[in-house]
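During the reporting period, we have paired protein sequences with C-alpha cells. One record among many follows, to show the layout:
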Amino acid sequence: QVQLVESGGGLVQPGGSLRLSCAASGIIFVIYNVGWYRQAPGKQRELVAVVDRGGSTNYADSVKGRFTISRDNAKNTVYLQMNVLKPEDTAVYYCNARLRDDHWGQGTQVTVSS
C-alpha cells in the first residue's frame, strides 16, 4: 500500500519560514518524480515545485527564489523549504509522487497570517 505522509505545516507570520516533509512508503521512491502542490480555498490545485528522479527541479513562478524543493532518497522523503512566506501562500499543501501511476498525500495546512 502506497502512503505519502506530509508534516510541517502550521501558522506562521508573513516573512517567516516553514519546512514541509513528505515521507513515502510502498513505492520505489528513487525512481519517482516527486513534488508539492497546493490548493487555496475556492481555487484549483496548482503546482508549487517538483524534483524529478534525476534531481532536476521546477518551480511555480510565484515561489521562485523563496521555496526550495529537495529529496533524500535514502529516507524516501521529499522536503519543501519555504522562506519569506506571504499571505497568498496560505493553502493546503499536498505531496505527490508520479511515474506511470500517481499518488497523493492527505495534505497539510499552511497559514500565513499576522
Notes: The radius of gyration is 13 Å. The chain is about 0% helix and 55% strand.
